[in-house]
Amino acid sequence: MFLLCIKNGTGIAESDIYLIICSFLFSFYMIALDTVGKDIDGMLLSFFQFIIADILTLPGMIAEKPELGTILSSWLPLLYAGILGSGIAYTFQIVAQKYVKPQKAAFLLSLESVWAAIGGAVLISERMTGKETVGCILVFLAVMLSQLDFEFCSKA
């Protein structure tokens, strides 16, 4: 992940600390989803999650003093992020995780940065550096290796 995500320098930035904290919180979310999500309608849970998230983030949005012109000029990226990036993606996760153990879901979701980098290269012609390409390969291999059954090692 370091090779894939750290662009300049070799240190961890403040934003990286926030991402690490977010990763821990997201793991708790996945465990909670595994615990209660199997007994609840996934579409209904997703709906209420978005309503609660909207209410909780409203004060922050108001504090930023958004301008209607800026919002309207960004309508396409906002719709894309809201509908596809959040609405559909998180709803699919809730529904699909009813059938997948949280460990496997976490491994699959850990490939998000790899798919984002590949998608950026394919869809909007971003170019990955050699370091980023090696990072993608290492993350992919780590996820694949984590799924292998190493039972033969314990028999020795």
Can you count the beta strands? 0
Low confidence ranges: none
Give me the Rg, rounded: 19 Å
| Arithmetic mean pLDDT | 80
Major beta-sheet overview:
none
Shape: globular
Instruction: Determine the structural class based on helices, strands and strand pairing.
Output: mainly alpha
Give the % helix: over 70%
The ordered string of helix (H) and strand (E) elements is HHHHHHHHH
Strand percentage lies at: under 5%
Number of helical elements = 9
CA-to-CA gap between the ends? 32 Å
Short description:
By secondary structure, this protein is mainly α.
What does this structure look like?
This protein is an all-alpha fold and about 160 residues long. It has a domain at about 1-110. The protein is built from 9 helices and no strands. Helix 3 (about 40-65) runs antiparallel to helix 5 (about 75-95). The model has no long low-confidence stretch (mean pLDDT about 80).
Topology of this protein?
Blueprint: H1 2-5, H2 14-36, H3 42-63, H4 68-73, H5 75-96, H6 102-109, H7 112-123, H8 130-146, H9 151-154
Helix pairs in contact: 3-5
List keywords for this structure.
9 helices; mainly alpha; 156 residues
